[in-house]
């Protein structure tokens, strides 16, 4: 199991992350598709090739092709949107009158239930640090009556995956020294 490979690869100083990662992959707050899609989307958002490959190996046993592609699509579109809306927000409204002009069709037609895609987008936005997108996706999820605990679990998952990616990147860099 590739999740086990990730845990084994974490150095001793990342023991908390190892334990947290082991717990989050067993989450009962999210259904299987939400959980594994969020793991794939957030792994892609971390830009850790190793983490994405390991998570994908297990995720492909759980997710349909549509869900897997939807999770990768959430990471990709949020990679664009998080930069755009975070930057636009930092410019204090000076560009609010201008049209974004960005194609975002996948948000309307993700190939999975809208709530799942929104949850993945929220998790990626947490990693990418876009408060505008976090707020927008959280509002859509709450309006769709997704529970606060499921939303919070997606945020926890994002933080754990981000920390695991950082620890793996650090371990890989130091192994080359």
UniProtKB/TrEMBL annotation:
MF terms in GO: disulfide oxidoreductase activity; hydroperoxide reductase activity; peroxiredoxin activity
Biological process according to GO: cell redox homeostasis; response to oxidative stress
Source species, domain of life: Bacteria
Active site: 130 (proton donor), 133 (cysteine sulfenic acid (-soh) intermediate)
Residues spanning the membrane: none
EC numbers on record: 1.11.1.28
UniProt entry tagged with the keyword Cell inner membrane: no
InterPro entries reported in the protein's UniProt record: AhpD, AhpD-like, AhpD_core, CMD-like
Catalytic activity: N(6)-[(R)-dihydrolipoyl]-L-lysyl-[lipoyl-carrier protein] + a hydroperoxide = N(6)-[(R)-lipoyl]-L-lysyl-[lipoyl-carrier protein] + an alcohol + H2O
S-S bonds: 130-133
Keyword vocabulary terms for this entry: Antioxidant, Disulfide bond, Oxidoreductase, Peroxidase, Redox-active center
Family matches, as SUPFAM superfamilies: AhpD-like
Domain Carboxymuconolactone decarboxylase-like: from-to ranges: 97-173
Subunit structure: Homotrimer.
Function recorded in the entry: Antioxidant protein with alkyl hydroperoxidase activity. Required for the reduction of the AhpC active site cysteine residues and for the regeneration of the AhpC enzyme activity.
Similarity remark: Belongs to the AhpD family.
Record protein name field: Alkyl hydroperoxide reductase AhpD
Organism: Mycolicibacterium porcinum
